[in-house]
Each structure stands twice: as structure tokens, then as C-alpha cells.
Write a structure and sequence with these properties.
Layout: H1 13-19, H2 35-39, E1 51-58, E2 64-71, E3 76-83, E4 90-92, E5 141-145, E6 151-160, E7 163-164, E8 170-171, E9 174-184, E10 196-199, H3 207-213, E11 220-225, E12 231-235, E13 246-249, E14 260-268, E15 271-272, E16 278-282, E17 289-291, H4 293-306, E18 313-314, E19 324-326, E20 344-348, E21 355-358, E22 364-366, E23 372-374, E24 376-378, E25 388-390, H5 392-395, E26 398-403, E27 408-413
Parallel strand pairs: 3-10, 4-9, 16-25, 17-24
Antiparallel strand pairs: 1-2, 1-12, 2-3, 4-10, 5-6, 6-9, 7-8, 11-12, 11-26, 13-27, 14-15, 14-16, 14-20, 18-19, 19-23, 20-21, 22-23, 26-27
Length: 422
């Protein structure tokens, strides 16, 4: 969902200009010689393995987690922001662009591989549901809008993505993704230093859904984000812990792009609060956690009231986040401040004994100024309205599993610093 910023505007002129740049006929020029052998699994290895990606990044000061994905033949490496709040993967196009992403060495150049408008993957990536293809040669233009009002506009393409599976095999499925040429970003990190976004949502256009439809992995994705930075991401169900994880259903009303859970009640220091009935979205594309204004204000009041009499004062001069505190001397890490703060938790009321624990390190950061700041923000101030988003800060040091086969989400405390063995 990509909540890091704030802005939007779209242009039709780029559609027209781009249409003339890339002809639609598919070419064998970018096809690896062993593609026929490697892209179609046999019935014997169907869903038999997973894919694990090392993750880079952190909540603070970078603000996002990324994976490096090889695309094309010969393959070229692209750093992509992992986003469980959207489904379409896109990379910056090597074409006239607006809002171009920063890494100019990570541009994707289409090679007669633009997806046609009539392709079944085209309809899910259009904002307009009433578009009718003018002919078989019309290209598939996509448009993605994020919850923070950012957006990406471009054309859908198909190319080879080499993937190493945990059973040792290397396959090169041909996958559709966006080639973006008109991006809107906002906030202090605009544009980000990544080449694009890896969409992990539930829609048909996601890489996960396409790998599943090819019979290469089960429809399961998970991540483990380390509070010390880095971690890992995986497709497939080989890495699910055999014990310890708790599960709760994905809401039937959840859109194809989001993973929504609830209703949930907020607990403060293991005690009930007035905040109940929350629907929350797990969103690895969001740096911080956002609640609606009522829930946010309740959390702020609970935390501030609990800090009365403790040796912390407001650090109004620290611009890192809206609410920060300073001590007698600068803090070096969260270990210095944990004792000042109480744990939060979300209790999922329709699933017995299912809690998402939010210890202080799951909602606080220590800034470069040596202050401690609240990493829970008011969603109303970035246009989220009633959406409640559980972002990276609250997903750290947990293995989170999105099981689209069983329509469940599970999590368990984990050491995310070491890649798992399947």
C-alpha cells in the first residue's frame, strides 16, 4: 500500500506517447534457449518448493525494506520495495518519464514484449472497469493508486524472471509486470532510491498469483523483517513454522489487493481499552503503523498519561515524527527506553486467544538526535480516513505468513537475521 508519502495527478498524454514507442508483437529475441524446459513444471514437482529472497532495509532511517530481483535475459538486477498492500509489481521504464525513480542504472527497456489489452491480466490492473479494447493490437496500460495518494502509471510487459527454488532447481517463468513511466511520490523520500515496487497482494496480476497459476508455488507469501535491519521474504509454504504461530482469517470483505483482518480490540499493558472493532491491514509497504483518528488519539492519551512522573520530556524540536520524547541524555537504542513504555496488543475478538503483540520496540524508534518517538501515526493526516494499517515497525521480528490457499494470516516471533532452511 506504500504509505510513505502524499500526492497525485495523472496524464493521458503519456499513454499516447508511450503507445508509439513500443510495438506489440512478441519477439523471440529476449527468450532464453532453455525456456521451454524451465518454465513449465511437471506434475511431479507441482508446488514442491519455495523461493527465498534476502531482504535489505530498515524502518529508520531508511523507511523501507527491499529485495533484489533479476529480470530479463540476460538478467538485470532491480531493487524493489516489498509491498503486501498492493498487487502489481512495476519497475522504472527506460522511456520519457515523470517522477522517475533515482537509480538510473536500473531502468527496464521493453523489447517487443508489451502485453496486449485483451490479455486476461490486463483488466485487473486498470483503474477503470469499463474500458473496452479498441483492437487486438492495443497495449495494456496500467494504473496503480496507493493509499497515501501516490501512484504509478505505465504499460504492462512480460519477461523472464529467473528464480532459484529451495529444492535446488532454477526456473525462468515469463511473468507480467508494469513498466512505469509516470510516478507520483510525496514525503521526505520522494522519489525513493528503489527501482520500483514488488506487489505481494492477492490480485491476479501479482507475481505470486502468476507463479501459482503456472504451478510453480503454492499461493503463500511471507516475510520476516529484522528490527536490526534486513530479513527475508518467501513464496511458497515450505518455510511455515511447524508450531508456535497463530492464525486468523482474512476478512471476506478484504479487497484483492489487501490483507484485512479483524475486528480487533486494542489492549494497553494487557488491559482492555475503549478502542474496539478495528479492521486492520497488514502492509509491508508502510514504514509506520497508522490508526484512525479516534484510535490514534486514545493511544496517544494512554501513552502520555502512563509517562507522567517518568524522566521523559517532549522533544518538540525533533522533526523525525510528530511525537517524540527526550531523556536526561541522548538515547542510543530502544533498550535504553523500553522500561518507560508499556506493551500494546491487538486482540482479534472472533478468533480465540489470537493476539498481535506490540511491545515498545514494535511502536517506537530512537532517532539520530537521541530521542524516542512514537511510530504510530494518525491515518487521517495522510488521507487514510478509517483505514488502520499495521506497518513495518509493528511487523518486525515476526514471521508473517499470508496464506491465500486457506485465506488465513499467521505470525510468530522469529529471528529474522538468519535465512531459514526449508
Amino acid at each position: 500500500m506504500h504509505v510513505k508519502s502524499n500526492q497525485i495527478a495523472l496524464t493521458v498524454l503519456f499513454f499516447l506517447a508511450f503507445s508509439s514507442l513500443f510495438p506489440l508483437s512478441f519477439s523471440a529475441a529476449n527468450q532464453p534457449r532453455n525456456s521451454k524446459k524451465s518454465t513449465h513444471p511437471t506434475s511431479a514437482n507441482r508446488f514442491a518448493s519455495s523461493i527465498v529472497f534476502p531482504v535489505q532495509g530498515n524502518v529508520y532511517p531508511l523507511g523501507y525494506y527491499t529485495v533484489s530481483l533479476n529480470i530479463g535475459y540476460p538478467p538485470k538486477l532491480y531493487d524493489l520495495d516489498i509491498d503486501s498492500g498492493s498487487d502489481l509489481t512495476w519497475v522504472q521504464c527506460d522511456a520519457p518519464c515523470r517522477g522517475c525513480t533515482k537509480p538510473r542504472d536500473q531502468l527496464y527497456k521493453p523489447n517487443n514484449n508489451v502485453v496486449q489489452c485483451v490479455d486476461q491480466l490486463c483488466a485487473p490492473v486498470r483503474l477503470s472497469t469499463n474500458h473496452h479494447c479498441s483492437g487486438p493490437d492495443e497495449q495494456c496500460d496500467y494504473e496503480v493508486e496507493y493509499a497515501d495518494n501516490g501512484s504509478s502509471l505505465g504499460v504492462l510487459v512480460k519477461d523472464y524472471i529467473p528464480l532459484q527454488f529451495t529444492n535446488g532447481s532454477v526456473l525462468r517463468p515469463r511473468i507480467a509486470f508494469g513498466c512505469g513511466y509516470d510516478q507520483k511520490f510525496s514525503g521526505p523520500t520522494s522519489p525513493p532510491s528503489t527501482a520500483g515496487v514488488l506487489g505481494l497482494g492477492r490480485g491476479k496480476a501479482s507475481i505470486l498469483s502468476q507463479l501459482h497459476s503456472l504451478g510453480l508455488t503454492s499461493n503463500v507469501v511471507g516475510h520476516c523483517l529484522s528490527g536490526r535491519g534486513g530479513g527475508f521474504l518467501f513464496f511458497g509454504d515450505d518455510l511455515n513454522p511447524s508450531s508456535g504461530n497463530v492464525w486468523t482469517p482474512i476478512l471476506p470483505s478484504s479487497s484483492e489487493k489487501h490483507y484485512s483482518l479483524g475486528p480487533a480490540e486494542l489492549l494497553f499493558n494487557a488491559k482492555p481499552t475503549t478502542v474496539q472493532g478495528l479492521e486492520v491491514i497488514f502492509d509491508s509497504g508502510s514504514s509506520y503503523t497508522y490508526f484512525n483518528s479516534k484510535a490514534y488519539q486514545a493511544i496517544v492519551d494512554l501513552v502520555i498519561n502512563d509517562l507522567k512522573g517518568k524522566k521523559l520530556t517532549r522533544a518538540t524540536e525533533d522533526p523525525s515524527l510528530p511525537i517524540c520524547w527526550k531523556g536526561a541524555k541522548p538515547f542510543k537504542s530502544l533498550r535504553d527506553v523500553n522500561s518507560y513504555f508499556k506493551p500494546l496488543a491487538l486482540s482479534f475478538t472472533k478468533t480465540r486467544n489470537v493476539l498481535l503483540q506490540l511491545p515498545p520496540e514494535a511502536y517506537l524508534i530512537v532517532t539520530k538526535h537521541g530521542n524516542v518517538c512514537l511510530g504510530i501515526l494518525n491515518g487521517d493526516e495522510v488521507g487514510l480516513e478509517d483505514l488502520n494499517i499495521i506497518g513495518d515497525i509493528s511487523l518486525q521480528d515476526k514471521m508473517v505468513i499470508y496464506d491465500n490457499e486457506k485465506q488465513l494470516i499467521g505470525w510468530v516471533s522469529a529471528n529474522c537475521d538468519r535465512l531459514p532452511k526449508s
